[in-house]
Sequence to fold (145 residues):
Amino acid sequence: MPIEAESNHIHFHFEAVDPPFTNTDKLAEWIRECIHHEGGILHYINYIFCSDEYLHQINLDFLQHDTLTDIITFPYSDEAIESDIYISIERVVENAQTFGVSTQNELRRVMIHGVLHLLGYDDKSPEEQRSMRAKEEECLQRLGE
Fold:
């Protein structure tokens, strides 16, 4: 049975991984603040933290991509934020090492990255990537850690 923590409309689920953080209320408030600042309307977000294997299977089943990834975001509404966001803890740890940042910093960046996609930001072109990175940094600054 998965471990679960809830904070208003943002829910944190852990599928066969240890929770990578303990202060879910603070994280949920930070995410809500970023959404509000961007003019978004939050109905709910389910964050599902999982293994590479778990996320790889979702990638195969739903997107027909046979690759590992750190995050998959499923939007369910165009009018408000209603989403499941899957994050591989293993990818986050590896990426943190690759980029020379803390695992917590990389995890928060990935968490807000999914939210920014839901708010209409993309990262396909170099210009979009720069804009996305700037928004990630702006949101990370809001967290104040």
Remarks:
- Helices lie at 24-37, 52-63, 89-99, 103-118, 126-143.
- The two ends are 32 Å apart (CA to CA).
- The chain has five helices and five strands.
